[in-house]
Specification:
453 residues, 15 helices, two-stranded antiparallel sheet, 55% helix, 7-stranded mixed β-sheet
Length: 453
C-alpha cells in the first residue's frame, strides 16, 4: 500500500509540473509515445549529457576563456616597465594599424600617416645606448617585433628595417661623428632608412659575390650596380648600401642619401606578400658618395654580418608574432562560426588544429625568449640566431596554414586577416637568410664541417 501511495505521489508531482499546452503542441510535432520509449532506454550518463546539452542551448551565453596566444604566460616575467611598453605598442597596433591595414595591404600602399604616431612610441633603436635611444633589452625589442607582427608583418618589417638594419648599420659600423649626425633624427623617425645588400643576381651569395662596386677617387667614392628587394627605399632619406671595393675586394658600407646624383629607386610591383612594404630596385650609376659617408668601421663582410646577426633574431620574433596573430584570429573565428547548430570550435578536428597551432606558437615563444636572453648576456652566436630563424619561420608557415584551413573558404578573404598572414609568412620565411643558408650555418656549428659551396 505504501508503494502505491508513493507512486501516486510521484505522478501527482509530475502532473503538477507539466505544461499541458506545451505537451499538446509537442504531440503535434513528434510521436510522444515513441519519444518517451527512447528516453526510457537512456542510462543515467546519457540522460545527464542530454540535459546538459539542452540547458546549454536555452541558458545564457556561455562565458568563454580569453583569447591569449601567450599560453605559458611568458609576459608575466617582464618588469612592470617593460610590460607597460608592451601593452602600449599593442594598443597602437590594435587601434591605429588594424583598422586600416587590410585596405593598404590590398592597394600595396604605405600608410605614411602612421610614421609620426609610431615615432611617439619612442621605440626606434631600442637597444642602442645614447643618441636618444632607450638602451633597453633585446628581449624587449623582440617583444615589440612580436606585437607588431601579431597585427601586421608589413608594419613590423618597415620598423625592423628602420630601427634594426638601417640604424643598426650606423650604430655598429659608423664613426662617432656619423652616429651623432644620423642616429638622433632616425630615432625620432624624422629620417627614414633602408638597407641595401641583396642584388638582382646575388642573394644568399652576398658574403663573397657582390656585383655592386665602389671605387675611390680622392675623397669621393663612385658606386655602380643594383640592389633588389630593398624595403623603404622608394621614400627613404638614408640608404645603407653595401658594395665591393674594387681595390681590395672587401665589402664596405655607404650612407647614400636619396638626393645623391646617380641614385634612383623604382618600386617592385605585383608582390603577393608584405604588400605594404615599399620594396624597390635601387640603381646606382656613377653615384658619388663622399668619404664622410662611408661607414668608417666596416672593412669586410664580417662587419656587415654583425648587423645581420642582430636583426636575424628580430625576424624570428616577428615570425612568432605572425603565427600568434593567425592563431588568435582563427580561434576567434571558430568560436563564432556556427555549423550544424554549434560553434565549429566545439568539433574535435577543429580543436586538434587549434592545439597544434598553439603548440607551435608556444614552442616558438619559449625559444625566442631564451634567444634574447643569450643576446642580452652577450652570448649570441650566428648559429643561435640562424636556428631561431629556421625553426620559427617553418613553424609559422604551419600555423598560418592551419589557421586558413579551419576558416574554410573564408580563410582566403582579407576581412578575416588570416589570408594576409598566410601570404606574409612566405616572405618572412625567405628574407634575412633562407632556410637552407641558415640551416648550413647551424650545421657547420654542430658538425664542425662547412657544407657551403
Amino acid at each position: 500500500m505504501a508503494g502505491l501511495f508513493d507512486k501516486a505521489k510521484n505522478i501527482y508531482q509530475l502532473l503538477k509540473n507539466v505544461d499541458f499546452n506545451q505537451l499538446e503542441a509537442l504531440s503535434k510535432k513528434v510521436d510522444l509515445p515513441k519519444v518517451m520509449d527512447q528516453f526510457s532506454r537512456l542510462d543515467e550518463r546519457q540522460l545527464q549529457g542530454l540535459m546538459k546539452m539542452m540547458s546549454g542551448g536555452t541558458g545564457g551565453k556561455k562565458e568563454l576563456p580569453p583569447i591569449n596566444g601567450d599560453f605559458y604566460e611568458l609576459s608575466d616575467s617582464l618588469s612592470a616597465e617593460d610590460r607597460a611598453l608592451q601593452l602600449k605598442v599593442r594598443q597602437f597596433m590594435e587601434t591605429e594599424v588594424k583598422p586600416i591595414v587590410n585596405r593598404y595591404w590590398n592597394r600595396a600602399e604605405f600608410p605614411f600617416e602612421l610614421i609620426p604616431k609610431m615615432a611617439e612610441l619612442n621605440i626606434c633603436g631600442l637597444t642602442f645606448e645614447g643618441y636618444g635611444c632607450a638602451n633597453r633589452s633585446f628581449l624587449m625589442e623582440g617583444i615589440i617585433a612580436t606585437e607588431m607582427g601579431r597585427i601586421d608583418a608589413s608594419i613590423a618589417t618597415f620598423f625592423g628595417v628602420q630601427s634594426g638594419l638601417a640604424m643598426g648599420s650606423i650604430y655598429i659600423c659608423g664613426s662617432e661623428e656619423q652616429k651623432q649626425k644620423w642616429l638622433p633624427p632616425m630615432q625620432q623617425m624624422k629620417l627614414i632608412g633602408s638597407f641595401g645588400l641583396t642584388e638582382p643576381e646575388v642573394g644568399s651569395a652576398a658574403a663573397g659575390g657582390l656585383t655592386t662596386t665602389a671605387k675611390r677617387h680622392g675623397d669621393t667614392w663612385i658606386l655602380n650596380g643594383q640592389k633588389k628587394w630593398i624595403g623603404n627605399a622608394t621614400f627613404a632619406d638614408v640608404n645603407i648600401i653595401w658594395a665591393r671595393d674594387v681595390d681590395d675586394n672587401q665589402v664596405k658600407g655607404f650612407i647614400v642619401e636619396k638626393q645623391n646624383l646617380g641614385f634612383s629607386a623604382k618600386k617592385i610591383e605585383d608582390k603577393m606578400a608584405l604588400r605594404i612594404v615599399q620594396n624597390a630596385i635601387i640603381t646606382l650609376k656613377d653615384c658619388e658618395v663622399s668619404e664622410a659617408n662611408r661607414l668608417q668601421n666596416c672593412n669586410s663582410f664580417k662587419d656587415t654580418a654583425k648587423v645581420l646577426q642582430m636583426t636575424r633574431a628580430g625576424v624570428a620574433w616577428m615570425a612568432v608574432g605572425c603565427a600568434r596573430g593567425a592563431y588568435e584570429s582563427a580561434l576567434k573565428y571558430t568560436r563564432e562560426r556556427v555549423q550544424f547548430g554549434k560553434p565549429i570550435a566545439s568539433f574535435q578536428l577543429i580543436q586538434n588544429h587549434l592545439v597544434e597551432m598553439l603548440s607551435n606558437v608556444t614552442a616558438m615563444q619559449t625559444l625566442v625568449f631564451q634567444l634574447s636572453k643569450l643576446q642580452d648576456e652577450g652570448k649570441l652566436t650566428d648559429e643561435h640566431a640562424s636556428l631561431a630563424k629556421v625553426f620559427c619561420t617553418m613553424r609559422t608557415r604551419d600555423v598560418v596554414s592551419r589557421a586558413r584551413e579551419v576558416m574554410g573558404g573564408n580563410g582566403i578573404l582579407l576581412d578575416y586577416d588570416v589570408a594576409r598572414f598566410v601570404a606574409d609568412a612566405e616572405a618572412i620565411y625567405s628574407y634575412e637568410g633562407t632556410k637552407e643558408i641558415n640551416s648550413l650555418i647551424v650545421g657547420r656549428a654542430i658538425t664542425g664541417f662547412s657544407a657551403f659551396v
